[in-house]
Amino acid sequence: MPVYDYKCREHGLFNTLATMADAGKPSECPNCKELSPRVIVLPAKIGTMDTAKRTALERNERARHEPVFSTAERRERDQEHSRSCGCGSPKPGKAMLFYTADGKKMFPSMRPWMISH
């Protein structure tokens, strides 16, 4: 069972074991038996962290559970990719993929460093 932190109005912070189902429920203070709400204790550096860094960390944390799509699935839904990429059907002014005589890929484009995606 996980350990959760609670805060009593009179006696301050305390922690206790609780099931995950009871995580949102208040717990009795071990001193006065008064019901106390659960609190989340953050490290001190979180409060003084640069806002941009904290925002980036929060975004990364939320995105870690995002599903990973294959390239084919992503291309079906991604309109920006289909407009700006030379990998789809040939478009006027867009680079195409060529193969050299020895079978190597060649990208005659303005971005020679872009190998694939």
Question: H/E series, N to C?
Answer: EEEEEHHHHEE
Poorly predicted sequence stretches spanning 5 or more consecutive residues? none
Mean pLDDT: 75
Helical amount: 25-40%
- The percent range for strand residues is 15-25%
Give the N-to-C terminal Cα separation. 44 Å
Query: What count of helical segments does DSSP give?
Result: 4
Counted beta strands: 7
- Gyration radius (Cα, Å) is 27 Å
Strand order of the largest sheet: 2-1-5
Largest sheet: 3 strands, antiparallel
Shape: elongated
Please state the structural category: alpha+beta
List keywords for this structure.
117 residues; alpha+beta; 3-stranded antiparallel β-sheet; two-stranded antiparallel sheet; 4 helices; 7 strands
Would you write up a description of this structure?
This protein has 117 residues and is α+β, with helices and mostly antiparallel strands. Among the domains are: 37 residues, no CATH class; 36 residues, no CATH class. Helix content is 26%, strand content 19%. It has 4 helices and 7 strands; from the N terminus they run βββββααααββ. The protein has a 3-stranded antiparallel β-sheet with strand order 2-1-5, with no helix packed on it. A hairpin with a 6-residue loop joins strand 3 and strand 4. The model has no long low-confidence stretch (mean pLDDT 75).
